[in-house]
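As noted in the main text, all predictions were made from sequence alone. Below is one such record, for DHA1 family inner membrane transport protein.
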Amino acid sequence: MPLALLALAIGAFGIGTTEFVIMGVLPEVAGDFGVSIPTAGWLVSGYALGVVLGAPLLTILGTKVSRKKMLMFLMGLFVVGNALSAFAPSFGVMLIGRVIASLAHGAFFGIGSVVAADLVAPEKKASAISLMFMGLTVANVVGVPLGTYIGQAAGWRVTFVLVASLGIVGLLGLAKLVPEAGRPKSPDVRAEFAAFRNVQVWLALAMTVLGYGGVFAAITYITPMMTEVAGYSAGAVTWLLVLFGVGMFLGNLLGGRFADRALMPMLFTALAALSATLLLFTVTAHNKALAAITLTLIGALGFATVPPLQKWVLDQASAAPTLASAVNIGAFNLGNALAAWLGGVVISAGLGYTSPNWIGALLSGSALLLAFLAAALDRRTRGTTGHVVAASAPADDVPVAARH
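Prediction:
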């Protein structure tokens, strides 16, 4: 695989770390600024909102420059946001820093997916995308626990200084390793928006919202579930999240490898197994060992859907994939917010800390039904025309990958 994928993975590692490490140091941040924990929670929700809004906005603004230059700009924005958070004199300034950093998130993964896919042969595109996302999964295994430990031992500001420094390393890697080729050929943003005329793109976005939303319905409330139901200590939750991250890492690799061979069958299998595992979690959450195993499986199955979903969007929006790819990243965060809200609703209704797992299973099961619908529409299109209908793409843009 090209070394440029390493630079993309480093950037993804930094972004993944800053997104989730705030959850581990939230009490310290709240204490330093003299705000309540719920108020400090805006640092999480504000970041998610910034991802959803920033993904399409910055992608559109970047259509007139090369993808390499845009990735470098986004990583620079990431560095500025985290540096502002590290030295923020007030809670409001830190919130602004979090939002600035989040604006880079969706566009980086969206544009990065296009660049990664463009670096390899068509039959290896999903694997290339998964290698970039490997940085995000490794962040959950290494970056988040380490950042939490450093934040609790040396202060949360040190954590954000280190994250900003990591962004500088990623920026230098992008400048050195990513080729200049890959400038979008769209004369204006209308070509990018044209991709959304394809119902398959909308189906893919909905699958992303519902499928990964199923994961976050459970993981958002993992601390009370593991401490109040499974019987773990609060300190053990960090290591349980490491297991979840290990599952994400393995699922991402397997999802990319098998999606290159059989994209839709891989998606069917992952979504069906995820829905069943979330249902099972309502039972296994009452046993320490089984809860840990199930949590690892949820991480693996949830992230096994990421490479095939991202590749499906690239295929369906092949003539102008950049905006659709970035919006799909925003869809992950929209799913996170939706699932977290629904999980909170059922807990508040008195259904218990395992009840979000039922919500997660329902969301993932709905994504599976949409995947069947997408596959049926794709077969009907090919049966009618003899090939996949796609807008004409410039020769040096992302080619239409073979359908699986």
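DSSP finds 16 helices and no strands in the chain. Confidence is low (pLDDT under 50) at residues 387-404. These features were considered when defining construct boundaries for the mutagenesis experiments described in Section 2.9.
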